[in-house]
Amino acid sequence: AFNQYTDKKGYCNVGSAKAHIGHTAAASGVVGLIKVLLSLRHKVIPGLMHFNRLNSLIKIEETPFIITASENEWKAENGTARMAALNSFGHSGTNAHIVIKEYIQSRPKRKRISVGDSNGIIIPLSAKSDEQLLRKINELIEYVASKECRSMIQSGEIELNDVAYTLQIGREMMDERVGFIVHSIDQLVENGKAFCKGMKNCGIFCRGSVKHGNSGMKIFSNDAEIEEAVNKWILHGKLSKLLEIWVNGFEFDWNKLYEGDLPKRISLPAYPFAKERYWIESANDIQYAAESAREAPTYESIKDVIEKIDAGLLDSNHGTALLRSLT
């Protein structure tokens, strides 16, 4: 198929996610896609694990293909976009083939925030609880302070406006809210760390809770009045006023802060979900657990217990209790 269009040899790398994590059955296609997307993101072709020598019956030298035994930089040829082809041909009869092309952002000269850079930029953050809000702030400042993000900022690939815009229009707004007004990434990191430590002197910020009432909104009589005030505050660059009503529950169109081309949405840390367990325990479960605590040493591994359950040597309730004691 390749020879119909080119006589080039040894330029197309062949890889497999299965060499790294095993066969994921019905999920193998999407796992391969994730691997390709991560390779594009990091501009790296992973080495094929456990590959030592090629089958002697495969004459790969006369083909466009090569097998990458160790990790290599994925270089773009003559500035063109990187591309990959992904196969997912299963014995179930579900066959799929997809071609993935790297997205290259053409970044035009953009107009800045309409209220003026001198006023700063609003960084809004929200979560379901105080604990998750603090985690969200910590994960954000850890990311923007990372080597990867710093490199993209220095190259002009992303800007502070992009971080702000992504958080403004690309995230669900929840009850516990805090917003910072900053002029740089460094200031965001510094103020975010100070806020998480409970320091009062951490720049210009507002903290509010929607579920605890909108005390800051009582000065307005209706939504139309708020809308009129918002437009005036945007016009005069009063970001602290906008932030104050937002943390108290009023939603406005963030796009109004910008004129000309809008900033772009970028990849930022996702929501830090609380790791809560919900397990209903009955009196029988407690009894089984007590028995299991005595019997657990006779089972060497979780696999051993599962095999006993499969063989009918343990009932499922007793087996479940044993598994709990082993984990």
Q: What can you see in these coordinates?
A:
The chain is α+β, with helices and mostly antiparallel strands and 327 residues long. The protein contains eleven helices and nine strands. It has helices at 18-21, 28-42, 130-144, 147-154, 160-169, 185-196, 223-236, 239-247, 283-295, 302-310, 316-326; strands spanning 12-14, 44-45, 65-67, 72-73, 83-89, 95-101, 121-127, 176-182, 204-209. The strands form four sheets. It has a three-stranded antiparallel beta sheet with strand order 7-8-9, with helices on both faces. The chain has a two-stranded parallel ribbon with strand order 1-3. Helix 9 crosses helix 11 (316-326).
Topology:
Elements: E1 12-14, H1 18-21, H2 28-42, E2 44-45, E3 65-67, E4 72-73, E5 83-89, E6 95-101, E7 121-127, H3 130-144, H4 147-154, H5 160-169, E8 176-182, H6 185-196, E9 204-209, H7 223-236, H8 239-247, H9 283-295, H10 302-310, H11 316-326
Parallel strand pairs: 1-3
Antiparallel strand pairs: 2-4, 5-6, 7-8, 8-9
